[in-house]
Specification:
By secondary structure, the protein is α+β, with helices and mostly antiparallel strands. About 35% of the residues lie in helices and about 35% in strands. The chain has helices spanning about 5-25, 40-55, 60, 80-95; strands at about 65-70, 80, 95-110, 115-125, 130-145, 150-160. The chain is globular and about 50 Å long. The termini are far apart. This is DUF4440 domain-containing protein. InterPro entries: DUF4440, NTF2-like_dom_sf. It holds the Pfam family DUF4440. GO terms for molecular function: isomerase activity.
């Protein structure tokens, strides 16, 4: 079994369990769409996100997330809810984001659930009027909404920089 298939199987089981619990408390279940999404469709969420950060638009950066989504930033607590996610990204914009780009490595879907993994580059204004470049990787768990748009329900990322020794 290929590593990608193993990862997709694990993510699908986790998503199915999570969504089954979530749906018990919701109104009628969304009708499943059986057509698999393309890598480009699944990656659109993050491309829109990168464009929003580059445009310094925290509202547009947050709208790609489901209303009840959570982000898991590195070395910080979980941030839950679109309004809180918007505030998080506004703080990052205020701190000096110059731009953000993403590249999808892999993405798959099964019905209304999907995932995307990729790499990112973010550039920031440094304290000494220099430019700080951060590269890293990310994982997004996606759910197709009623309008057919893929929304992030969970997002996690980390830097490629080695851990500081002190």
């Amino acid at each position: 079994m290929k590593t990608t298939t193993k990862i997709f199987t694990i993510i699908t089981v986790i998503l199915a369990t999570t969504l089954a619990c979530k749906q018990e408390n919701q109104k009628p279940e969304k009708e499943a769409i059986s057509i698999s999404a393309t890598v480009a469709e699944l990656g659109q969420m993050n491309r829109d996100f990168g464009k929003a950060l580059t445009a310094k638009d925290a509202v547009a950066a947050a709208i790609v997330y489901d209303e009840n989504a959570s982000i898991l930033p590195p070395n910080e607590p979980i941030v839950t809810g679109r309004a809180n996610i918007q505030a998080y990204w506004q703080a990052a914009i205020d701190a000096g984001i110059i731009d953000a780009t993403v590249k999808t490595i892999d993405a798959k879907s099964n019905g209304n659930l999907g995932y995307e993994i990729g790499t990112f580059t973010m550039r920031f204004h440094g304290a000494n009027n220099d430019t700080i470049v951060e590269t890293g990787k990310y994982t997004e768990i996606l759910e197709r909404n009623k309008e057919g748009k893929w929304m992030s329900t969970y997002g996690m990322w980390s830097s490629n920089a080695p851990m500081p020794t002190e």
